[in-house]
Design goal:
Elements lengths: L6 H26 L6 H27 L27
Keywords: Membrane, Transmembrane, Transmembrane helix
């Protein structure tokens, strides 16, 4: 049985770990009054965010490559394009 990695679940877990580690780091920094002692937690949060963004690049490029039809250019079958009609006159 082959193990298949679900990217959306992985991205959710990474984002959750990033947020939780950042909140814990901020809380510990306030209690201890020292950023240096909590540097590791900040870096865990930062690495999780970077990895989260890296995993999201594949989906953005796939979406960017597919053409998106514009709502204004869609015409009905058999209808004349808007550019061929005289301007200022209404259709009846």
């Amino acid at each position: 049985m082959a193990f298949r990695f679900d990217k959306s679940l992985g991205r959710t877990v990474l984002f959750s770990v990033a947020v939780v580690s950042f909140i814990i780091a901020v809380y510990q920094t306030i209690l201890q009054n020292s950023i240096g002692k909590n540097y590791t937690l900040y870096m865990v949060s930062f690495v999780c965010v970077m990895w989260f963004r890296y995993l999201g690049l594949d989906t953005k490029t796939a979406v960017k490559d597919t053409p998106v039809p514009r709502s204004g250019t869609a015409t009905k079958a058999g209808a004349k394009p808007a550019a061929n009609r005289p301007k200022g006159k209404r259709r009846k």
